[in-house]
Amino acid sequence: MIVHDKYSSEVFAEFPDPPDQEDLFKRARDAGNELSALSEDEINAILNDLFSIMKKRRAETAAAITAETGKPLSYSRSESERVEKISPEIHVPLQAARRCTLASASPMGTGVVVTDFSEPFLTASVQAIPAVSQRNPVVIIPYEETAASSHLLAKMFEEAGFPAGSVQVSPDAGIMENENISFISSISSRKIESHRNVKRYCEEPGIAVTLVWKDTDLDFAANVFSRIAIENRFIRDQELIVAEDSFEYFINALKEEFMKKRTGNPADYDTDIGVVTFPSEAQKASEIINNALSRRNLLYGNEIKGNAVPPAIFMDDSIDIANPIYAPIFKVVVAKSLEDSIRNINMARPMQVNIFTSDLNAARMIYEKSSARSTYINDIGSYIHNINNYSVDRRCIFGC
């Protein structure tokens, strides 16, 4: 298996072909037997070693994520740090049972973990850690293009002291049909087509809608959105709803923030925008921008050249971006009232809504009436929704 650097196209990492399914599941069964013999204290001690290794190898992990995805090094480091922050919360059995359907009072058997290309290390970690902590060996199925960080994670598990075979990596999606599989966990844009009647946990990517209401600190909202929304994340910030009274000021503030962003080599720490993981994403973004240009609805942005997609803002109701586009292009909608905002939010069918407002009642109204599964207030959510459902920045809501 070969993983190419998305910026230079050079070979970044090369891994031996995985064992055939018979050998792979034999290793998993042996690991499962060894895991079952470990006490709770022994599991927790190994997990603590795993978290320490993650911190020590943060730079190596970030470099692997950047090479395989094309996202800037600063954002790859952020992905690694988010895993470190989440991991101690999800390994404790009681907490894991509340946060992840993989958690079980007793081992279930060998499972499959399917990852996403947008956040390969994060989507592998938040599934593998609770599974293995409950003594379930797993086989990670990554996209071949973003497999390096999954291999790195598997090495970390073994280095920490988990039995060999506790975490294995194979790009073969056919493994999901194997009779030795006890459960399938997927946080991925990849469709799960297995016919096996086993326990499943599946999370598909979705879009996030951000509402900027007129009573908020507009410069603060523009700064936060410009920093976080351009990341390639599992939940894509795709649509902006802006209060009519604040529209002109906010869009100008956002343009100024976007103009500060540097496009270039993602391995340079000062780069804000790298390259897309797949050329098809650049092609989709280019088609939308060209369409907006032809209709004179492009508020900010330029034609795309190559696989680097700079930020773009457009207004065009004829363009539907209900499916995530892994590039920093954003549709803007003007809202005349909170009710109008809620209608627009629900029409977009988002997985997540981000609200910028200083009015707690307005935030509560949108939280209660929107169809989104996750809500963030005066912030842009960074976690997959089953890990952290609700976040409040007290700085703007309560003035403290």
How are the secondary structure elements laid out?
Layout (H helix, E strand, L loop, with lengths): L1 E3 L6 E4 L6 H16 L3 H17 L1 H12 L3 H18 L2 H7 L11 E4 L5 H14 L4 E4 L6 H13 L6 E3 L13 E5 L11 E5 L2 E7 L5 H11 L6 E9 L3 H13 L19 H16 L3 E3 L11 E3 L14 E7 L2 H11 L3 E5 L3 H10 L4 E4 L12 E3 L1 H4 L3
Parallel strand pairs: 3-4, 3-6, 4-5, 6-7, 8-9, 8-13, 9-12, 11-12, 13-14, 14-15
Antiparallel strand pairs: 1-2, 10-11
Helix pairs in contact: 2-4, 2-7, 3-4, 4-6, 8-9
Written overview of the protein:
It is a single chain. This protein is 40% helix and 17% strand. The protein has an 8-stranded mixed sheet with strand order 10-11-12-9-8-13-14-15, sandwiched between helices. It has a 5-stranded parallel sheet with strand order 5-4-3-6-7, with helices on one face. It has helices spanning 21-36, 40-56, 58-69, 73-90, 93-99, 120-133, 148-160, 218-228, 247-259, 279-294, 338-348, 360-369, 394-397; strands at residues 2-4, 11-14, 111-114, 138-141, 167-169, 183-187, 199-203, 206-212, 235-243, 298-300, 312-314, 329-335, 352-356, 374-377, 390-392. The radius of gyration is 22 Å and the shape is globular. α2 (40-56) runs antiparallel to α4 (73-90) and α8 (218-228) packs across α9. α8 (218-228) links the parallel β8 and β9 (235-243). The model is unreliable at 91-101 and 382-400 (pLDDT under 50). It has 2 domains: 2-203, Aldehyde Dehydrogenase, Chain A, domain 1, CATH 3.40.605; 206-397, Aldehyde Dehydrogenase, Chain A, domain 2, CATH 3.40.309. The longest helix is centred in the first third of the chain and has 18 residues, at 73-90. It is α/β, with parallel strands linked by helices.
